[in-house]
Amino acid sequence: MDGNRRGVICDWGGVLTPPLRDGIRAWLHADRIDVEHYHEVMRPYFDDSCGGENPVHALERGEIDTREFERELAALLRCTHGGPVVAEGLIDRMFCEFDPVHAMYEALREARDGGAGTALLSNSWGNCYPREHFDATFDTVVISGEVGMRKPEERIYLHTCERLGLRPEDCVFIDDLEHNVRIAEELGMTGILHTDVGTTRLELERFLAPDGDGAPPVPDERAA
């Protein structure tokens, strides 16, 4: 294998879609769910202070049934109109506003056309992905619930590198969550914390440049 080959590993929600908070906010308003109460319910799952097995982590690994999770979550939430939250289809409704960011797909396809290996690495809630874009963009797709691992577990990063046939040191990892990026960097990858398409494209071009050093540009370079 060409020793100069590079790999690009990219998250889905918040990178290939608009920011997570925007999509979730749209769902909360559409389903008329009490927003403040939703954040109170979900906070222990996301800061991992719930004690015992975290049901969100189990869902992302595919260890619990999606419909069971929907029923349990719906029972915890409340609607502003006083009625119950509909459990059936809750996750599909939650993610229905996660439209593709075509400029990011284009950047990944350009990297692939230039010889880089490309991979999607996403934590799934059992939701449906817009897979019509995947074949033209990715060499391999790693969905947490399909492989029984989740970010930020080191093994799912290494598994993705293996699927690309590359070492972590030869890969860049793009994600909108800092702790996910930090683990990738600890494994030897170059991390890009995604905030907007323009900045990520510049950093990706730097990483893929034939004479580049594999490191994202320093802040003054990003602003230039």
Automatic annotation (TrEMBL):
It holds the Pfam family Hydrolase. Transmembrane segments: none annotated. Gene3D superfamilies: HAD superfamily/HAD-like, Putative phosphatase, domain 2. CDD domains: HAD_sEH-N_like (cd02603). PANTHER family: HAD FAMILY PHOSPHATASE, HYDROLASE, PUTATIVE (AFU_ORTHOLOGUE AFUA_1G12880)-RELATED. This is Haloacid dehalogenase. It comes from Nocardiopsis sinuspersici.
